[in-house]
Write a structure and sequence with these properties.
- The structure is a single chain.
- The protein has helices at about 5-20, 30-35; strands at about 45-55, 60-70, 75-85, 90-100, 110-120, 125-140, 145-155, 165-179.
- It has about 180 residues and is α+β, with helices and mostly antiparallel strands.
- The protein is elongated.
- About 15% of the residues lie in helices and about 55% in strands.
- An 8-stranded antiparallel beta barrel has the order 1-2-3-4-5-6-7-8.
- It has 2 helices and 8 strands.
């Protein structure tokens, strides 16, 4: 081996050792966040909902915005605001929630959650409810997901003279973007 080839091998070896030595090992949080991806601790999701709903023998346009933040991998707390318009009486709903996403399953991420809801109805007393939801998130893009699921909601102190039913089960579809 010539003197220049030995120098080249030594230079490449020193450069490789310096590169690997200067790259710190991944922390447990980084490894965990990589596994949980968009559902990892510290991520924030913005949710947009749109659809129709029925109440008081009327059909409404339902528009909603929400945000959720992951406290630990898979577990988020959120807040959603909905406006039910296009029929009478109009309604507004405020919903704090908690949800767990099973991020360990690739491509299809099941979720379960619970919520408390306050509904403001024009001309009627406000009503509270509690509920549970379950479904799946399907990856729709790099940081985008479509949620498809079902919800069970039970109204607290419900008056059957005013409301036809004091509980409801319905489908839900959402679009969420993760940051």
């Amino acid at each position: 081996m010539t003197k220049y080839r030995k120098l080249g091998v030594v230079t490449v070896t020193v450069a490789a050792i310096a590169t690997f030595a200067s790259t710190p090992p991944a922390t447990a949080a980084e490894v965990s966040g990589a596994v949980a991806g968009a559902f990892g601790k510290g991520h924030t999701h913005f949710v947009v909902t749109a659809g129709s709903g029925n109440a008081f023998d009327e059909t409404y346009l339902v528009l909603g915005l929400g945000v959720s933040h992951y406290l630990i991998d898979g577990l988020n707390v959120g807040l959603t605001l909905e406006s039910w318009v296009g029929s009478d009486p109009s309604m507004y709903k405020v919903t704090p929630s908690v949800q767990y996403v099973f991020y360990q399953i690739p491509q299809l991420n099941p979720y379960v959650g619970g919520f408390y809801r306050r509904t403001y109805i024009d001309g009627l007393p406000d009503i509270n409810s509690v509920g549970a939801r379950a479904g799946v998130y399907l990856k729709a893009g790099r940081n985008a997901y479509i949620g498809i699921g079902a919800v069970y909601e039970s109204y607290i102190d419900c008056n059957t003279n005013t409301y036809r039913s004091c509980s409801d089960t319905y489908p839900e579809v959402s679009f969420t973007v993760a940051f």
